Amino acid sequence: MKKETLEKANELVDRIQQLQQSFECFEYIHDDGNGDISEPISLIIAYDDADDGRCQQHIPIDLNDEFIGILKGRIIQGIERASAELEAL
Hints:
Elements: H1 3-25, E1 44-48, E2 54-58, H2 61-88
Antiparallel strand pairs: 1-2
């Protein structure tokens, strides 16, 4: 295997791992068996206000669920593309 091919393969493996970690951020695990119950995922918009402070606004739950679905779908597409590219090397 050429050095360039190996470097590309390493980049793709790193990309796949990053995407998988990103995907896991959006996974809601209700109970892990140890009694630890995770909270539902909630997206927040953070912005600077007029007084140079930092404000946060929760996204309404119906939009929140829609956005999470879209983000997860895009992450899965990225994993599939990177995996296919890695297999083609």
